[in-house]
Sequence to fold (60 residues):
Amino acid sequence: MSAGQARQLGATCQTGLPSPTSTTPCQIEALRRLATEGGIPAESARRILEDNPGRLYGIA
Fold:
């Protein structure tokens, strides 16, 4: 993913939600795209999207 694509994706995900801990579907899709397009390691994306929420909610 190029820097321009990353900026565009980031701009698309600006939601103005009051809580910085709120995760929007757009942010989840951004992480998935970064993993599949080489922006971050797939293992890191899996931990962020699956392992961490599972531990938080006690379902992992």
Q: What stands out?
A: The chain has a mean pLDDT of 74. The chain is about 60% helix and 0% strand.
